[in-house]
Amino acid sequence: MATAPAVSSPKEALPPILGSASEPPTLFDGTTRLYMGYFCPFSQRAWITRNFKGLQDEIKLVAIHLQDKPSWYKEKVYPKGTVPSLEHKNEIKGESLDLIKYIDSNFDGPTLLPEDPAKRQFADELIAYADAFTKALYSPLMSHVDLTEDAVAALDKIEAALSKFNDGPFFLGQFSLADIAYVTILERVQIYYSHVRNYEITEGRPNLEKFIEEMNKIEAYTQTKNDPLFLLDLAKKHLNIA
Prior knowledge:
This protein is α/β, with parallel strands linked by helices. It has helices at residues 41-52, 71-77, 96-106, 117-142, 149-161, 177-196, 206-215, 219-222, 228-238, and strands spanning 17-18, 32-36, 59-64, 85-88, 91-94.
């Protein structure tokens, strides 16, 4: 299983964001493209996976303006119209949790899932729970209610999960797809709950605190991060979080 690369890579020059007035790239020309949004936590999962495996030259980023999407994206690329999606071998793949597995298994680079059967099973369980975790944490914010029992239970569940293996600070000990499935959501709810609910998600959860600390040492992740207050402002405007 992967460990974080020790050698730093130069910061990637990111392509411009494409809005409704933009022209599409030359589709299905053999280029592998990740259609994504720079501020989208689901796109960020695929982006981190790409970066960690060192695929910056092999998988080109196509940044979509999520509030002003070009019509060609839904009409010609991905009929669901959501991001992320991956153009690879003249096919389009979607759904972030499926995509991170697809990128890991279909491209070169460090593997992000373990061979150990117990760890592999736990990874599958964690990835399967990621959508429910996201819903549990976002629902109170979007419903304008106080912290719910479901949100606390979801945080406690991943705190406990982080203690299952003791050979590292991540869900499976070493860095894996399971961590990628959660970190982009945690990045956001940490700032949302701190500023909107005056609640620190790491308080009383030392494993989670250590996890976030160690994730912030992984360049493949930090290269994709946004300013926390910018994310908070974006959430207030577009997700009606208050």
